[in-house]
């Protein structure tokens, strides 16, 4: 393909639009540098690092407007690790899962493979569609993604079933910090920090309710074998001490701490929600104006604010578009690898400036005109 050179006045100031790892702001790197040598390279069992962990925990509680009694847990490993922890430490007997993309399906698979649990109920939809959990007798965990990173489908956060008998467990990895929600409608709201929190992976966080804390005590005390690294009782104990079972990545915590400070200073989750709505709206509006493009998610109410997926007509090669963009410094607009669609997938996380999204649409117009 002949090289396409996008005019400078059509380029975004920052060309990072990946769905994770995501754009890291310079202020975060400056804060990380400020921790050398007092924090970086020091023991995670001592006050300097514990204070950093505590700062992240307290800011998350503030950002989420957490109800009384809710706590922030953290441990090493990403959301994939948390699925295994939930299988061992949260599900009493049987779970139900909403599966409308790759990541909701993976949690359901983890539950199905556990020999000590009944087969989970799975409410499924094809990629681009939406499925919801439904209250059923005997289910003790309802699990669904707040935002499906692979497809760009967004789910409302709501409690399923009776709070007395079942936990509502929400995968928030690509939603947390970018989409507003009612924390009281969840028992476990878990995520990794490499999306809206503009940090790196390798750690998970979870906002947990008093009911979830009670369930963890019940299940982990039942005699079920649980590997130490997957035992949420250990995560509860260590999180209360502002530490993790084993050594965390301090740079990840530092980048997240500064991102949280920036979010709260600008207006918190309500501000972040408005910012991602603005950015994603620019892309959806652009797609709907084109004869050759359409939003992948047909139901407007389920179109993600933070992961925009756009399909293209057969005579427009999305791969060539993303290649041309990458050659001009606009990166990570490729679709989720397993979907195999003629599509772009563009993150509109909180750190991404809406002005850069507006410039991206102009760059798209230019590239497509040259193909």
TrEMBL record:
Q: Which UniProt keywords apply?
A: Amino-acid biosynthesis, Aminotransferase, Cytoplasm, Pyridoxal phosphate, Pyridoxine biosynthesis, Serine biosynthesis, Transferase
> Which pathway, metabolic or otherwise, does it act in?
Amino-acid biosynthesis; L-serine biosynthesis; L-serine from 3-phospho-D-glycerate: step 2/3
Give start and end of each Aminotransferase class V domain.
23-330
Named cofactor requirement(s): pyridoxal 5'-phosphate
Q: Does the keyword Calcium apply?
A: no
GO MF, any single term: alanine-glyoxylate transaminase activity
Q: Which reaction does it catalyse?
A: O-phospho-L-serine + 2-oxoglutarate = 3-phosphooxypyruvate + L-glutamate; 4-(phosphooxy)-L-threonine + 2-oxoglutarate = (R)-3-hydroxy-2-oxo-4-phosphooxybutanoate + L-glutamate
Query: What is an example of a Pfam family matching this protein?
Result: Aminotran_5
Q: Name one GO biological process term.
A: glycine biosynthetic process, by transamination of glyoxylate
Keyword set includes Amino-acid biosynthesis: yes
What InterPro entries does its record include?
Aminotrans_V_dom, Pser_aminoTfrase, Pser_aminoTfrase_mycobac, PyrdxlP-dep_Trfase, PyrdxlP-dep_Trfase_major, PyrdxlP-dep_Trfase_small
This entry's Enzyme Commission designation comes to 2.6.1.52
The family annotation for this protein states: Belongs to the class-V pyridoxal-phosphate-dependent aminotransferase family. SerC subfamily.
Q: According to its UniProt entry, what is the function of this protein? A: Catalyzes the reversible conversion of 3-phosphohydroxypyruvate to phosphoserine and of 3-hydroxy-2-oxo-4-phosphonooxybutanoate to phosphohydroxythreonine.
State the protein's name: phosphoserine transaminase
Protein's organism? Canibacter oris
């Amino acid at each position: 393909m002949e090289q396409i050179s996008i005019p400078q006045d059509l380029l975004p100031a920052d060309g990072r639009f990946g769905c994770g790892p995501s754009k890291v702001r310079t202020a975060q790197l400056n804060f990380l540098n400020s921790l050398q040598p007092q924090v970086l390279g020091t023991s995670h069992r001592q006050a300097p690092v514990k204070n950093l962990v505590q700062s992240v925990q307290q800011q998350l509680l503030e950002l989420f407007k957490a109800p009384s009694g809710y706590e922030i847990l953290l441990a090493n490993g990403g959301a994939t690790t948390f699925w295994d922890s939930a299988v061992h430490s949260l599900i009493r007997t049987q779970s139900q899962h909403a599966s409308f993309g790759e990541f909701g399906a993976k949690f359901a698979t983890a539950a199905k493979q556990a020999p000590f649990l009944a087969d989970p109920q799975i409410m499924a939809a094809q990629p681009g569609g939406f499925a919801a959990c439904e209250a059923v007798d005997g289910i003790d965990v309802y699990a669904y993604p707040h935002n499906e990173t692979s497809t760009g489908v967004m789910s409302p956060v709501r409690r399923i079933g009776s709070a007395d008998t079942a936990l509502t467990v929400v995968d928030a990895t690509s939603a947390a910090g970018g989409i507003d929600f009612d924390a009281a409608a969840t028992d476990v709201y878990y995520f990794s920090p490499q999306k809206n929190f503009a940090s790196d992976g390798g750690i998970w966080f979870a906002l947990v309710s008093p009911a979830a804390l009670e369930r963890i005590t019940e299940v982990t005390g039942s005699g079920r074998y649980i590997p130490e690294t997957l035992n949420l009782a250990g995560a509860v104990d260590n999180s209360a001490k502002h530490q993790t079972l084993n050594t965390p990545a301090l740079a990840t915590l530092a980048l997240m701490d500064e991102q949280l400070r920036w979010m709260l200073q600008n207006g918190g989750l309500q501000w972040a929600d408005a910012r991602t709505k603005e950015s994603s709206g620019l892309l959806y509006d652009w797609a709907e104006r084109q004869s050759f493009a359409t939003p992948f998610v047909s139901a407007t109410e389920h179109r993600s604010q933070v992961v925009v997926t756009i399909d293209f007509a057969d005579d427009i090669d999305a791969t060539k578009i993303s290649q041309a963009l990458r050659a001009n410094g606009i990166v990570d607009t490729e679709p989720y690898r397993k979907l195999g669609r003629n599509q772009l997938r563009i993150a509109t996380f909180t750190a991404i400036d809406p002005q850069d999204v507006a410039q991206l649409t102009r760059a798209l117009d230019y590239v497509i005109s040259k193909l």
